[in-house]
Design a protein that fits this description.
Radius of gyration: 22 Å
CATH superfamily of the largest domain: lambda repressor-like DNA-binding domains
Number of helices: 8
Shape: elongated
Number of domains: 2
Strand content: under 5%
Largest sheet: none
Low-confidence stretches: none
CATH topology of the largest domain: 434 Repressor (Amino-terminal Domain)
Number of strands: 0
């Protein structure tokens, strides 16, 4: 495998995931400069390190090694409780999802009291 080509793929995956070189280095347990050398095609990681890189960037090793298309990153949620609720809502029937969306719109718009009062009247 060509180290320069691997470096380009690694850089693409890292930037698409919005991860800095420093963050990636910390995630896989190597020095920042080592990630820099990988990305600049100056060296190739060991097989074990390549697996850690792929895992940290949430891509398959095939993406880094063979250039398969890099999938879009999953949405990022700072609030893990909110993420858990979104997953629960996604499993509801469409009519319940529509109600949840209307309710969330009211919360974001600061109109929850009005929304609740309209629900009580109906």
């Amino acid at each position: 495998m060509d180290a320069r080509v691997f470096g380009v793929r690694l850089t693409q995956a890292r930037t698409q995931r919005r991860v800095s070189m420093t963050e990636l280095a910390r995630m896989i347990g190597v020095d920042y400069m080592q990630v820099h050398r990988y990305e600049n095609g100056q060296s190739l990681p060991s097989f074990e390190t390549a697996i850690r890189l792929a895992g940290a960037l949430q891509v398959s090793l095939d993406v880094l090694a063979n250039g398969s298309e890099i999938p879009e990153p999953p949405p990022s949620f700072r609030n893990q409780t909110l993420l858990a609720w979104m997953r629960e809502l996604d499993a509801l029937p469409p009519e319940r999802q529509a109600l949840a969306v209307r309710m969330l719109e009211a919360v974001v718009a600061g109109e929850l009291d009005d929304f609740v009062n309209r629900l009580r009247r109906s």
